[in-house]
Amino acid sequence: MDGESVANVGLSRLDNPAAETVWREIYHRNDEAMASLSPEWAEAVVAAGNFRSSPQFYEFSDGGRAVLPLFTRGIGSLRYAWSPPPAWGFGGILSDGVVTPAKLESIFAHLETLPCLGVRIRPNPLAAELWAAAARPAWTSIPRLAHVVDLSGGFDAVRGRFHRNAHTNIRRARRLGVEVDVGNSEGLIDEFHGMLQLSFARWARKQHEPAALAQFRGMRRDSRSKFTTIAARMGDRFRLYVARARGRPAAAILILMDRQAHYTRGAIDEPLAGETKATDLLQATAIEDACRLGSTHYHMGETGNSTSIAQFKCRFGAIAVPYAEYRFERFPLARLDGIARGAVKRILGFRDAP
Fold first, then answer.
1. What's the rounded mean pLDDT across residues 135-159?
2. Range of the domain at 43
3. Helices (H) and strands (E) in the chain — how many of each?
4. Taking every annotated instance into account, which residue ranges of this chain make up the domain BioF2-like acetyltransferase (predicted)?
5. Which residue of 36, 145, 203, 347 is surrounded by the most CB atoms within 10 Å?
């Protein structure tokens, strides 16, 4: 461990005022923080997601401190832990000092001792090399692919890296009178969630999934109350961008603004958005705001194996970033879950997005 050790490792509850103060200090001192690592985000996860917040605090021999936001569900030793839970952004660690592979390895080792059935971590893709170097043999590495826009040089430089198709589509949207509203009001949430439900139905058709099942899964993952809860906790960091054409909402995206911005959800009225190219204007507007607000990167989220999604993100200068999710389990729960899900998909004739 190169002489490094965890001087103090303990489980601190969010209702411990001192622990929450430490978390806030580390969060505000970290120049690479994402909104989904903030204490306010944890409050939203607990309030809207039916999880318990169990952040892990660490202090190293060199005086550096770190926190890993962790969320659990279950009873006693039958709990499962996530950082973060599915559909709740990126997790991992925050630190007020330099995190080395040896330090992170000691955190991995501590997490193996938690009284849980398993632990799953989805870290910031930009920290992929650090996590890969620190991972211990007991952990399974699950390959992922994200796309990220480097905002260095300011918006003029970033815009110069847009593909010509993006410029063409942005001009078309403006020529057709597409207007963009930005905020976190109840009205914008209503418009966004309405289009999200349209997207559930569209994804069901493309994936050969029963519409009722798609709506149930979508609403369970992304209910309206989830977004109103996040907006209430996150304030101005929760930013909805809604594009309107001919007085109707055509597309909307949700951005979590922070030192690293995160495009975390998108929804469209497909015919209207396709005709007006509203999505391109939305992304350009959000990227410009991220530059203006001082973000260093603009995360465009998980891409998976979809060629069409990758091409869309690359239009805005996003670079493919391979990374991994990490899983530790005492029993092969994920493998059994994968077998069950695979069987259901085969029965339904489910198809992944192209």
1. 97
2. 6-138
3. 13, 15
4. 164-302
5. 36
Does 194 reside within a domain? Answer: yes
63-95: string of b/e by CB count within 10 Å (b at 16+)? ebbbbbbbbbeeeeeebbbbbbbeebbbbbbbb
In this predicted structure, what is the pLDDT of residue 21?
87
What is the tens place of the pLDDT at every residue in 6-32? 434 433 333 456 778 889 999 999 988
Residue type at position 303: T
pLDDT at 69: 96
Sign of CA dihedral 68, 74, 75, 77: negative
Confirm if 89 and 325 have CB atoms less than 8 A apart. no
What is the b/e burial string over 109-132, where b = at least 16 CB atoms within 10 angstroms of the residue's CB? ebbeebebbbbbbbbbbbbbebbe
> Mind listing the pLDDT tens digit for each residue in 323-346?
999 999 987 766 655 565 555 556
Beta-carbon count within 10 A of 175 CB:
10
- 101 is written with which tokens? 């592979």
Our measurement of the distance from residue 119's CA atom to the centroid of its chain's CA atoms, rounded to an integer in Å, reads 18
Torsion on CA atoms 114, 119, 124, 128, rounded to nearest 10: 90
Highest mean pLDDT among 60-74, 221-235, 338-352: 221-235
Per-residue pLDDT at 345: 53
